[in-house]
Amino acid sequence: MRCMRAWDMLVSYYRLLGSAVIGVLLYLIFADLLRTKLGNVALIEEVLVHTNNQGLHDMTKPITDLVASSGISEGLCTLFVQHTSASLLVQENYEVSAKRDLEVWLNRLVPENPEQYSHSSEGPDDMPAHIKSALTATSVNIPILDGKLGLGTWQGIFLWEHRRSVHTRKVLVHLA
What is the pTM of this model? Predict the structure, then answer.
């Protein structure tokens, strides 16, 4: 909204002065002032999530702490998991049975059946994990409002581990 008003002011000055050269100069000066006033604040961090089993792993706290320490009051938090056998989601963080039901449902939808898949060199849970990742999301976006994540009361951020073994998953967090 502030940028749109600034742009309207710039256009008004340009029309008033009527010169392309003066308009370009004003734009360059004004764009620099906007950057100084509004700031080009962006931050990219890597968050590690240690998993010891298949399922939903709550990672809300490290993300909320990162947003709080960033100094960004309004913007967007983008999360991206750098793996093909895990995914991300925003889901209920209050009732444990909701997590269990999601896990059971997805395991029924994509069963571990080695005869069903040709890709099996990494174990019977590997190809189902790739399919689960493809059916879910590898990135999520959450607005930042008043320096906090715009999550609802019962929402949390989860890494969904689709493999049964121990992993350390890398999640990129981009705040802007």
Answer: 0.76
